[in-house]
Amino acid sequence: MYERKIPEDLECGINVSMKVLGGKWKACILDSISKGVRRPSELHTAISSAAPRVINMQLRELEEYGMVCKKIFPGTPLKVEYYLTPTGESILPLVAAIDQWGLTNRDHIIRMQEALQ
């Protein structure tokens, strides 16, 4: 098992928030689930820029942090759906703020990125 050489500072709220949302697609996953996208295959379609393997890994991490819960329905084929927990719902205002900031500053960021090329 991997052991960190420098201990994590979980006294800092920003560090805690980034630990949960730090993956490239985690905010998009939480946003999609909040809008009713529940099944992994639906998430893969909704977030087509991300590899299914990456979405699955980040779903697992979100589940480990208690942001989402997985419900497994018996039968063949097996059906799995994800739902936000109360803690997952509590992070949605932060996800919405990140989205709004991105929309507000998109043109500026695109110009800066183009200037670097």
UniProtKB/TrEMBL annotation:
GO MF term list: DNA binding
Residue stretches making up the HTH hxlR-type domain: 12-110
Gene3D superfamilies in alphabetical order: Winged helix-like DNA-binding domain superfamily/Winged helix DNA-binding domain
Pfam families according to UniProt: HxlR
Keywords of this entry: DNA-binding, Transcription, Transcription regulation
Source domain of life: Bacteria
Protein name, as recorded: Transcriptional regulator, HxlR family
